[in-house]
Amino acid sequence: MSTVMTRPGRLAAAGQWMQRHGSVIRGIQWVVVAVYALLIIVPAVMPLPDDSAHLWNNLTLAAQFVFWGIWWPFVLLSMVMLGRVWCGVLCPEGALAEFASKHGRGKAIPHWMRWGGWPFVAFGITTIYGQMVSVYQYPKAVLLVLGGSTVAAIVIGLLYGREKRVWCKYLCPVNGVFSLLARLAPFHYKVDEDAWRRSYKNGEHGHRVIPINCAPLVPLRNMKGASDCHMCGRCSGHRDAIALTWRAPSSEVVELGDKHASAWDTALILYGLLGIAIGAFHWTASRWFIDLKMFFATWLVDHDITWPLQTNAPWFLFTHYPEQNDVFSWLDGTMVIGYILATALVYGTALLLLLMGATRMLGRLSSVRLHHLTQALIPLAGAGVFLGLSATTLSLLRAEHVPLWWASDVRIGILAIANLWSAWLLWLVTRRYSQRFVRRGLAMLWFAAALAVVDSAWWLMFWGWASK
Ligand code: SF4
C-alpha cells in the first residue's frame, strides 16, 4: 500500500519538474540537433571506411553504430518503458519542426494531411526505400533518408500550424509505430475530469488559467492514454487536473483499444511491423531470396534480356558502391522491393485470417473487436523490430571481435517475454467480449497460432537460415 501512496507523488513531481524546466528540455533538444547534424552530415562527405577502420577510430562506423545500433533499437524500447519521452524531449526532428512552425506562415492544416493512412504508408515507403539504398550501411543514404525527412519536417513546420508539431502528428514515418508502442508505457499524463470541472468554477472566481501550447495537438481535456502525447511535461499541473501517473501497462490496450483501435492501426501492426519490417530484415538473410534471384537471372539470360542485369542505377535509387563491391542491378533492386512486399502480404494476411478466427470465437465477426484483438500483438511486433534492428548492432560488434555467445539466449528470452505479454494482453481483451472461458480459450488458440506465425519469421532469420 505504501508504494502505491508514494509512487504517484514522486512521478507527478517528475512531471512538474519537466513543466518548470522547459528551457532545460529545449536546451537538451538543441544539443541533440547538433549531434544529429554532425552524425548525418560529416560521414556523408568522408571517404567510406576501409578494412582497417574500427568503431572507435572512424566517424562513419561510429555514426552507423550510434544510429542503427543504439539509437533506433533503444528509441523503440524507450517508447514501451517511458512513453514518447523521446519525441517530446530528445527528437531533433520534432524540435526543428516546432521551431520552424514558430517562425513560419502558420497556415491551417490541409485536409489531405489528416488522412488516417499516413502512418502506415509513410512507414512502409521509408522502410522499403531504406532497403533500396542500403540505409543501414552507407552514410550518403543516411543523409538522404534521415536528412530528407528532417528537411520535410522543417518545410511542413514553416508552412503549417503555429508553434506546433504538425509533421510529427500527421506525417512522421515512425509516428504510427511510436503511437502503438507508447500504449504499453507504465505511466502517462492523466486528466482528472472532476478537477478540470472544478477549475472552471475557480476560474469564475478570478483564478487565471495559463493556456498550454501542446505542440503535437493533443486535445488536453479529452486526453486518454499515452499514444499521442509527446510527454513534454508542459501541461503537467494544468488546471490542477493533469499529472504524470502510473498505470497498468496493459490498461490502454485493454480499456481503450475498442475506441482507439482503427483499421489503419491493424494494417500498421499486421502488414507494417509484422510484414514490411520483417521482409526488410529477411531479404539479406533469406536463402529463398538468393534462389529466386538465380532463377530470374537465368530466365532473363536464357531469353536474351540483359538490361535488368545491368548495374547502372544511381545510388539514390538502388545501392551503388562499386568500390565496396556492393552494387544492385535493376533485377536486384526490383527483387528487394518485391520480396519485402510479398513477405508483407503473406505474413500480414496469414495473421489477419488467424485474428479473424479469434474474433469469431467471441461472437459475430466485428471490425471493432478485430482491431481490438490485433492490438494484443503490439508487444511481439515491437520486440521483433527491436530484434531485427539489433541484428545490425550485433554484426557491427562482431566485426570488432566482441564475444557474442549470449546473443542467441537473449533473443530467445526477449521473444519468450513478448509472446507471453501478447498472450496475456489478448486474454484480458477477450474478457471485454465474453465471460465464457471456453470462448475465450478458443480465441486464445487462434491467437497462439498467430504468435507461432510471427515466431516462425524470427526463427527463420536467426536460426533457420543461419544454420544452413
Ligand atoms: S499532452 Fe501535450 S503538452 Fe501535455 S505532456 Fe503531452 S505533449 Fe506535452
UniProtKB/TrEMBL annotation:
InterPro entries: 4Fe4S_Fe-S-bd, Electron_Trans/Redox. Residues 66-107, 151-186 form the 4Fe-4S ferredoxin-type domain. The keyword Transmembrane applies. The chain crosses the membrane at residues 27-46, 66-91, 112-129, 141-161, 268-290, 336-355, 376-398, 410-430, 442-466. Keywords: 4Fe-4S, Electron transport, Iron, Iron-sulfur, Membrane, Metal-binding, Transmembrane, Transmembrane helix, Transport. GO terms for cellular component: plasma membrane. One of its GO terms (molecular function) is metal ion binding. This is 4Fe-4S ferredoxin-type domain-containing protein. It comes from Paraburkholderia phenoliruptrix.
